[in-house]
Amino acid sequence: MIFTYNKEYVGDVLMIIAADNQGAKLTAERKGNVARVYREDNGQTVAWNIFQVSNRMNIEGCGQVYLTDEQVAVLNQELTEAGFAAELINDHEPKFVVGEILEMVAHPDSDHLNICQVQVAADKTVQIVAGAPNAKVGLKTIVALPGAMMPKGNLIFPGELRGEKSFGMMCSPRELQLPNAPQKRGIIELGSSEIVGEAFDPAKHWQA
């Protein structure tokens, strides 16, 4: 669940991204100040738009924003009052975390991609297909997990690269728009003492 808000350029509308549309054709239905965006082929809800949201709550920030449980409860009340039988669930899990490459093998259908097994929590390892030239077993880096929004606005969802499943992205300083980021390919290289699963903190994890 990704919340985005940009009153100056988009208007007083909170956009809630609930799922990857996977390129499917979309349609929408609006009731009052709530619009549901869904796939035409299977009816899956992929997004909600809450118009005039500042009448219900004060939202700080621009771009991706993070709401309290109390604010999400207000949004659920808005959906109910509009006649939608749905419930938004607030996700408190960090989407940018320290990860460690545990295994890496060459992609069978690529001369530059690798299939990596990346530990992203004490009890969780995910597969990520990556083409970073500096990727290697044992390297700790910053991982964008499904549900993350990158600084340029692109979203991270589970997907496939040349037939191999991928559940996130290992990030370069440039992709995270970090200050004085090198303008070249290559994921962030963290020290071996960094803790896997820890939420990304630019002040701690980045030194130009």
Overview features:
208 residues, mainly beta, 5-stranded antiparallel β-sheet, Nucleic acid-binding protein fold, OB fold (Dihydrolipoamide Acetyltransferase, E2P), 13 strands, 6-stranded antiparallel β-sheet, 2 domains, tRNA_bind_bactPheRS, 2 helices
Account of the 3D structure:
Residues 90-201 form the TRNA-binding domain. This is Phenylalanyl-tRNA synthetase domain protein (Bsu YtpR). The chain has two domains: 2-82, YtpR-like (Nucleic acid-binding protein fold); 96-205, Nucleic acid-binding proteins (OB fold (Dihydrolipoamide Acetyltransferase, E2P), Beta Barrel). It has two helices and 13 strands. The protein has helices at residues 69-82, 202-205, and strands at residues 2-5, 13-17, 26-31, 34-39, 45-51, 63-65, 96-106, 114-121, 124-130, 140-144, 159-161, 164-166, 169-170. A six-stranded antiparallel β-sheet has the order 3-4-5-2-1-6, with helices on one face. A five-stranded antiparallel β-sheet has the order 9-8-7-10-13, with no helix packed on it. Strand 8 (114-121) and strand 9 (124-130) form a beta hairpin. The longest helix has 14 residues, at 69-82. The two termini are 32 Å apart.
Task: Please write out the topology.
Elements: E1 2-5, E2 13-17, E3 26-31, E4 34-39, E5 45-51, E6 63-65, H1 69-82, E7 96-106, E8 114-121, E9 124-130, E10 140-144, E11 159-161, E12 164-166, E13 169-170, H2 202-205
Antiparallel strand pairs: 1-2, 1-6, 2-5, 3-4, 4-5, 7-8, 7-10, 8-9, 10-13, 11-12
